[in-house]
Design brief:
The structure holds two protein chains of two kinds.
Chain A: E1 11-20, E2 30-38, E3 42-46, H1 53-61, E4 68-73, E5 76-77, E6 88-91, H2 103-107, H3 109-114, H4 118-131, H5 147-160, E7 165-169, H6 177-193, E8 197-202, H7 205-211, E9 214-219, E10 222-227, H8 229-234, H9 239-244, E11 249-257, E12 260-263, E13 267-270, E14 280-285, E15 291-294, E16 305-314, E17 318-325, E18 328-335, E19 346-350, E20 356-359
Parallel strand pairs in A: 3-8, 3-9, 6-7, 7-8
Antiparallel strand pairs in A: 1-2, 1-4, 4-5, 9-10, 11-12, 11-14, 12-13, 14-20, 15-19, 16-17, 16-19, 17-18
Helix pairs in contact in A: 4-5
Chain B: H1 3-31, H2 49-56, H3 58-91, H4 97-109, H5 112-126, H6 132-156, H7 160-168, H8 173-202, H9 205-210, H10 218-228, H11 232-255, H12 258-262
Helix pairs in contact in B: 1-11, 2-11, 3-6, 3-8, 3-10, 4-6, 6-8, 7-8, 8-11
The chains are: A alpha+beta, B mainly alpha.
Subcellular location (chain B): Cell inner membrane; Cell membrane
Keywords (chain B): Cell inner membrane, Cell membrane, Membrane, Transmembrane, Transmembrane helix, Transport
Protein name (chain B): Spermidine/putrescine ABC transporter permease
C-alpha cells in the first residue's frame, strides 16, 4: 500500500497514511494507517493495548500531531484546522469531566464555547440530558455521580454540539459487565438516531463485533484488516486477525491440487482455495464449523479426521471439546442437549470445505 | 494496665499537651481583660477597657491598616507570580528546571535575619528603604515559596484530559485556561493567598530592618510599644490579631484543607 489511494466516493472521513513515531521508540506507534468511513457509520478500532489504536484516534482528533499523512472530514482537509475548530466530540477513557462544573454546564460546554446564547443553550442541554436519561441530575456535581452516570454525561457533552465526528476512546472500559452491555446498545442507538459518524477504540472484540458497522483490526501500529464484522470473522486477511478475533484451529497446509491441501500426518483435506502456493501455509477452521460425530459412521471418510476427546468443558449453552487428532489439538464446539462424548472416546471430525481458509505463513 | 486506666492516662497526656500549647494564648486572653495598668496573671477585676484603649490608639489603628494593606498587596502579587512560576515549573520542559524550583524555595531556607540584612543593603541604593513598596517587595519574596508550592501542588493534580476535552469541544488555548485550568486551581490560589497574607501580617524581623516611620506594621508597633510600656493594651491587641488570623485559616481549611496547604 505504498501509493496513495484516492478516497472512496461516499467517504465522509478519509484517513490516509497517518504515521506517528514517538521519540526513543524503535518502531512507529502508528504506521501508514489508511481508511475511509461513510457518513453515519461506526468504525471500531480494535486491538490489544499498545497496538496504536488510541494514538490513531488522537491523531484524528488533533490531539497528537502526525508525522505524515492526512485526515479529511466532509471534504475538508483537517491538516491546518486547529483542534478546537474541528467540530468533533470525544468521550475519553477517564471521561475527563470538568470537576468544577455541574452536569448541565459540562454538557453545555461545547455550545458555550461556540458562543450560543444561554436560553438556546439551555434548551439544547435539556434535550441532550433527556436523550441520555440524565434529566434529574442536571445540577449535580460530577463527584456525586456513579461511573455509569459519568459515562452518560461524557457522551452527552460529546454529542451536544452535534459534531461531525464522534470519537470514543475505550468508553466502556471502566464499567462492569452488565452496565457495559447496556451502554453499548445505548451508544449505538444514540449514534444512529443522531446520524453521527463514529470512531470507537476498543480492545474488546465482542464490543467491536456487536456494535460497529466496520472493524479495523490493529497490531503493532499497522491496520491488519478493515471490513464488516462478518468479513473479519469469516474471512480474516491473515494469521494475526484470524487468531485475534474469536477462536480458531490452525493446521499447516501444503498445496496438493486445486481444492485439496495436504496436512502433514493427517492426509488430504478439502479446501476452498484453488490457486497454487509454494511451501507451507496455514489452514484455519473455526471451532463451530466442525462437526463432531461418534460411532462408526465412516461415510465421507476422506475428509473426516479421527481423534480422541481430551477435554470437555461447559461454557454456557454449549460445550468446548478438545480433540487430539494425530499431532494436532483441535478445538470444537457442541450444543448443550446433544449427545456428548466422554473423555478418551474416539470421535470423527469433519467440516465443509467452504468453511476453511488458507492464510499466509505457518501456524 | 487495664483498658480504662490506659484510656485515662492517654487522655490526660493529650490534655496536658494542649494546655502546654495553648497556655500562652489563654494567659494573654485573660490578661487582656485586666484593669490594672501592668501585665500580671491572674487578673484581679475584668473590663473591656484595654480593648477600648486599642481602638482609640491611632498608632495601633494605622499600623493595623498598614499591615493589612501590605498583606493584601503582597499576597495578591505573590499569588499571581506564584501561579505563573508554577506553570513554568510543573509544565515547562527546559534545562535547569530543578535549579529554578530551588530558586523559588530559597527564601524559605534562609533565616529571616539574613534576608533582612541583605534586603536592607539591596533596597537602600534603590531608594526603597523605609517605604511601603520596599516592604511589599520583601514580603512577596518571603511568601513566594509558599504560593509556588501550594499552586504547583494543585497544578500537578490536574488531569491533562480535562484540558484536552476542553480543546476538542471547542475551547481555544486562552479559553481552556480561563474556563478550565484556572477555575480548577481556584481553591489552591485562594489558600495560597491566605497563607501569604498571614505570613506578611505576622512578619516582624524584616520589617524591623527595612521599615521606618513611613511603613510601621502592626508587629513593629507592638514591639515599639512594649519597649516602653507594658499594660494590658498589648494583650488586647494580641487577641485581636489572633482573631483576625483565624479568618484566613478557616478559608484555607475550607478550600484545600490546612494539612495539604502547609504539610506534604
Amino acid at each position: 500500500m505504498a501509493e496513495t489511494i484516492p478516497p472512496a466516493a461516499d467517504a465522509f472521513l478519509h484517513v490516509r497514511d497517518l504515521t506517528k513515531q514517538y521519540p526513543g521508540s524503535p518502531r512507529p506507534a502508528v504506521d501508514r494507517a489508511s481508511f475511509d468511513l461513510g457518513k453515519g457509520r461506526m468504525l471500531a478500532l480494535l486491538g490489544s493495548s499498545g497496538c496504536g489504536k488510541t494514538t490513531l484516534l488522537r491523531m484524528i482528533a488533533g490531539l497528537v500531531p502526525p508525522q505524515g499523512g492526512h485526515v479529511m472530514l466532509g471534504g475538508r482537509d483537517m491538516g491546518h484546522v486547529p483542534l478546537h475548530q474541528r467540530q468533533m466530540g470525544m468521550v475519553f477513557q477517564s471521561y475527563a469531566l470538568f470537576p468544577h462544573m455541574d452536569v448541565a454546564r459540562n454538557v453545555g460546554f461545547g455550545l458555550e464555547m461556540k458562543g450560543m446564547p444561554a436560553s438556546q443553550r439551555n434548551a439544547a442541554v435539556r434535550r441532550m440530558l433527556e436523550l441520555t436519561h440524565l434529566e434529574n441530575l442536571a445540577d449535580r456535581r460530577i463527584s456525586a455521580l456513579s461511573g455509569g452516570q459519568q459515562q452518560r454525561v461524557a457522551l452527552a457533552r460529546a454529542l451536544a454540539t452535534e459534531p461531525a465526528l464522534l470519537l470514543l476512546d475505550e468508553p466502556l472500559a471502566n464499567l462492569d459487565v452488565k452496565l457495559r452491555e447496556a451502554m453499548r446498545a445505548e451508544i449505538r442507538a444514540l449514534q444512529k438516531r443522531m446520524d453521527v459518524t463514529c470512531l470507537f477504540v476498543t480492545h474488546d472484540q465482542d464490543e467491536a463485533l456487536s456494535t460497529a458497522d466496520e472493524i479495523a483490526v490493529m497490531s503493532e501500529g499497522v491496520i491488519q484488516q478493515i471490513g464488516t464484522p462478518q468479513d473479519i470473522y469469516e474471512r480474516p486477511a491473515n494469521r494475526f486477525v484470524a487468531g485475534f478475533i474469536g477462536r480458531a484451529n490452525f493446521l499447516p497446509a501444503l498445496w496438493q491440487r486445486p481444492g485439496w491441501a495436504e496436512v502433514p500426518e493427517l492426509g488430504l483435506l478439502a479446501i476452498a482455495e484453488h490457486e497454487r502456493w509454494q511451501g507451507t501455509r496455514t489452514l484455519m477452521v473455526r471451532p463451530h464449523a466442525i462437526r463432531v460425530r461418534m460411532g462408526g459412521d465412516m461415510t465421507d471418510a476422506l475428509r473426516a479426521c479421527t481423534g480422541h476427546v481430551v477435554d470437555l468443558s461447559y461454557t454456557g449453552g454449549r460445550y468446548g471439546c478438545q480433540v487430539r487428532v494425530g499431532p494436532y489439538l483441535m478445538e470444537t464446539e457442541l450444543e448443550a442437549g446433544t449427545r456428548l462424548p466422554i473423555r478418551g472416546q474416539e470421535v470423527q471430525l469433519d467440516w465443509p470445505a467452504h468453511r476453511t481458509r488458507v492464510l499466509d505463513g505457518t501456524p | 494496665m487495664n483498658p480504662l486506666a490506659r484510656t485515662l492516662v492517654w487522655r490526660g497526656l493529650i490534655t496536658a499537651l494542649y494546655v502546654f500549647l495553648l497556655a500562652p494564648i489563654i494567659v494573654v486572653a485573660c490578661v487582656s481583660f485586666d484593669t490594672r495598668p501592668y501585665l500580671d496573671f491572674p487578673p484581679r477585676s475584668l473590663s473591656l477597657g484595654s480593648y477600648a484603649g486599642v481602638v482609640r490608639n491611632h498608632v495601633f489603628f494605622e499600623a493595623m491598616l498598614t499591615s493589612m494593606l501590605i498583606g493584601a498587596i503582597a499576597a495578591t502579587c505573590s499569588v499571581v507570580l506564584g501561579t505563573m512560576a508554577s506553570f513554568g515549573l510543573v509544565r515547562g520542559r527546559f534545562r535547569g528546571r530543578a535549579v529554578f524550583a530551588w530558586f523559588f524555595l530559597s527564601p524559605m531556607l534562609a533565616p529571616h535575619i539574613v534576608l533582612a540584612v541583605g534586603l536592607m543593603m539591596t533596597l537602600q541604593p534603590l531608594g526603597l528603604l523605609n517605604t511601603l513598596s520596599g516592604l511589599v517587595l520583601a514580603h512577596i519574596g518571603i511568601t513566594l515559596p509558599y504560593t509556588v508550592r501550594i499552586v504547583s501542588m494543585g497544578l500537578s493534580r490536574i488531569d491533562p484530559a480535562w484540558e484536552e476535552a476542553a480543546r476538542v469541544h471547542g475551547a481555544s488555548g486562552g479559553k481552556v485556561l480561563w474556563h478550565v485550568t484556572l477555575p480548577v486551581l481556584r481553591p489552591n490560589m485562594l489558600a495560597a493567598g491566605m497563607i501569604a497574607f498571614l505570613i506578611s501580617f505576622d512578619e516582624a524581623v524584616i520589617a524591623l530592618f527595612i521599615a521606618g516611620r513611613h511603613a510601621t506594621t502592626l508587629p513593629l508597633a507592638i514591639y515599639e510599644y512594649i519597649q516602653f510600656r507594658t499594660d494590658p493594651q498589648v494583650a488586647a491587641l494580641s487577641v485581636i490579631v489572633i482573631v483576625v488570623s483565624l479568618l484566613p485559616i478557616i478559608v484555607i481549611e475550607r478550600s484545600i484543607s490546612l494539612r495539604r496547604a502547609v504539610g506534604s
